[in-house]
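thread: overnight batch results

M.L. [08:02]
morning all. the overnight job finished for the chain we discussed friday. pasting input first so we're all looking at the same thing
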Amino acid sequence: VVNPEDHIAVVQAPVVWDPNDADLVHDLMARVHALEPWNETPLVRAMLEAKEDLVKAHGFRTLLVLTDGMDNRFAKDAQFHGKTIPRVVKDAFQNSGVAVNIIGFKFAAGEQDKAYEQFKGIEDLPLPGRFVDVEDAGKLAGELEESLRQRIRYWVERDDGEGLPEVPEAGLDISLTGGGDQWFSLPERVASTDFKVRVRTN
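M.L. [08:03]
and the structure it wrote out:
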């Protein structure tokens, strides 16, 4: 018996991507077109393997998952015996510094809701991700671009490093130029008058 999850392969090793490099684009697309679909989706296993490349990188790190179906191999994967997809995903990415974004493109019939139940936990990670369902190919490029957009977050903390309960665990978004100002007001009664701001990109 051949298990698809044991045959996940890297199509493109980590590289500084240059969309203007015609040879790079051509070579990658040639390898993609040569792939033969299994009609099986070991999505979680593929995400965990891709994560290993991302955690070695510096700076902005996001895992963008493009799929047309739910993970239909998790329950058959001995590696995950007795575990659930939400728990495995949370444990893997909770402190990874990697934002996870999932785009479902033309989901197979009946799989959209099931896929969301499997992966909705990415929205609650310290670096919140997005789960988006797209049916129109014309909108796909826009969603891909949005999912790859770097975001900047900040936290307001007391001088001793303890966070304020009014600041979400995921931090506060910094507005883009022209995107509308966002303000954070300090609570009226706080034990400290000294604060610091911590900034993180994802």
